[in-house]
Design a protein that fits this description.
The protein is α/β, with parallel strands linked by helices and 231 residues long. It has one domain: Alpha-Beta Barrel (TIM Barrel), CATH 3.20.20.70. Helix 2 packs across helix 4. The N and C termini lie far apart (54 Å). Bound molecules: iron/sulfur cluster. The site of iron/sulfur cluster has 13 residues, from loops. Iron/sulfur cluster binds next to loops.
């Protein structure tokens, strides 16, 4: 309390796979039963980082792509660092498959995943699961003003240590808002799976053949005409 925080948080003692392994070893020594999740940005060699994390002893590789970030993270960090997860996930998924360790590593993705359709997309690209953050904040009525770390903290009472501001909303209300969000995800994902005749989200992992890039979808002549007319 009373100390300034940095966002994104820097790890000044980790510059190599060996440094990384040292951290994983510490965690395992302290909590031998813990599942170790390594959260990394998505540099061009993110596939090598994933395999390195596996051999360092991690159970989960969590790829955090661009576009996400806390309200306090500067735009330059959010929008200019790391490749989009749409490129990073298949790269890691395929490389883990080639190395024969895909089933031994859980692949989690985050960074700009907002809707049930975003979730389905990253699962189809090869992720096992996702981390949602901004949508949860918005469900709690975060207005994305970027003032989380300024002054007394969040004026909505979400990111603050100020008791008066923190009382701006009730725990019961906030809990129900998050329950509603995840319930809506579940309903929408069930419908997406139903349309593909799938019984489980696991059947969708790596099914990038189900995706189409909207920029390259050939539209019928009449539809193009309507679009052109609309513009
Ligand atoms: S509403 Fe609160 S949590 Fe959201 S960006 Fe603003 S200060 Fe941060």
């Amino acid at each position: 309390m009373g100390n300034a925080l940095f966002s994104p948080f820097p790890f000044h003692s980790v510059y190599s796979v060996e440094d990384h392994k040292k951290h994983v070893d510490w965690i395992k020594a302290i909590s031998p039963k813990a599942l170790v999740s390594v959260k990394v940005s998505s540099p061009t060699d993110v596939d090598m980082v994933a395999v390195g994390s596996y051999y360092a002893g991690a159970h989960i590789i969590h790829i955090d792509g661009s576009y996400g970030g806390t309200g306090a993270a500067p735009d330059i960090a959010k929008k200019n660092i790391a490749m989009p997860i749409e490129y990073a996930i298949p790269k890691v998924h395929e490389f883990l498959l080639q190395e024969g360790i895909r089933n031994e590593m859980t692949l989690i993705a985050s960074g700009g995943i907002r809707t049930a359709w975003d979730i389905a997309k990253v699962i189809a690209l090869g992720a096992d699961g996702v981390v949602i953050a901004t949508s949860e904040m918005v469900a709690l009525e975060c207005i994305r003003c970027g003032k989380c770390e300024s002054g007394r903290g969040c004026p909505r009472g979400i990111a603050t240590t100020d008791r008066e501001l923190a009382n701006a909303y009730g725990l019961g209300w906030a809990t129900q808002r998050l329950v509603n969000l995840f319930h809506s995800y579940a309903i929408q994902l069930q419908e997406i799976l139903w349309r593909f005749g799938m019984r489980s989200i696991q059947e969708m992992v790596g099914r990038s053949d189900l995706l189409s890039h909207q920029d390259y979808v050939t539209k019928p002549a009449s539809a193009s005409g309507e679009l052109a007319a609309a513009h």
